[in-house]
């Protein structure tokens, strides 16, 4: 049976959008279907799937990583999701979107979108090992788990084809790992190895974790905008006086069609 899909990305973190308003088209969305959709040669290709389900008066973003696993939250994904809801479902800005990490508010910011990503949890110190080298890391939850690692140069993390080793007692469900270098005042660049997807061109929740950890290290006043460069573009993150992370960045829909995958 064929069904509609759209394809979109935010800073080249790319997603297959599956409209499923009454939740009847995709059932419980089996992991093998997600993997088939995200496969870059035989499928549509994507770092994850955003299933759009109506819930009450609003919409629920059902996020799946490209390996079929479920995640609580996706920062680039929610901007693409909002773009879809605005352009195809006629939802006005600002809009509220339900996620496994609670309700997020999205607003238009010129051509870009701003997501209120809520309050981060800055947790303890940990360590990750990549290419045989162990680095100190900061554990932050921005709805999903992150380990933020400062490095001297982004090439140090190598090809990132393998998952960085982490402490299973701290991250029993796995972790997203960000490698960060400083570029200037309130300006950093990062690469990411995403849980359930491998190295991607960007990670919105990861950029938020990086901005929070860097801002703490800098002792920067709340409200200072941080520029976070990722391989696929740039995100701007503000950690506000009331402790919320506001993430601004692009979100575009690039294709739509029907698939029987
Ligand atoms: N790309 C995302 C994060 C997607 C989920 C992540 N891989 C996880 O398993 O937690 C983003 O933009 O935040």
Low-confidence spans: pLDDT under 50, at least 5 residues?
none
User: How many strands?
Assistant: 17
Structural class: mainly beta
Note the main sheet.
17 strands, mixed
Choose one word for the global shape. Answer: globular
What does this structure look like?
With 261 residues, the chain is mainly beta. The protein folds into two domains: 3-118 and 250-259, Diaminopimelate Epimerase, Chain A, domain 1 (Roll), CATH 3.10.310.10; 121-243, Diaminopimelate Epimerase, Chain A, domain 1 (Roll). The protein is built from three helices and 17 strands. It has a 17-stranded mixed beta sheet that branches. The relative contact order is 0.18. The mean pLDDT is 96. The structure holds ligand LBFN2T5F. The ligand N[C@@H](CCC[C@H](N)C(=O)O)C(=O)O binds next to helix 2 and helix 3. The active site is at 74, 74 (proton donor), 203 (proton acceptor). One of its GO terms (biological process) is lysine biosynthetic process via diaminopimelate. Pathway: Amino-acid biosynthesis; L-lysine biosynthesis via DAP pathway; DL-2,6-diaminopimelate from LL-2,6-diaminopimelate: step 1/1. Catalyzes the stereoinversion of LL-2,6-diaminopimelate (L,L-DAP) to meso-diaminopimelate (meso-DAP), a precursor of L-lysine and an essential component of the bacterial peptidoglycan. InterPro entries: DAP_epimerase_AS, DAP_epimerase_DapF.
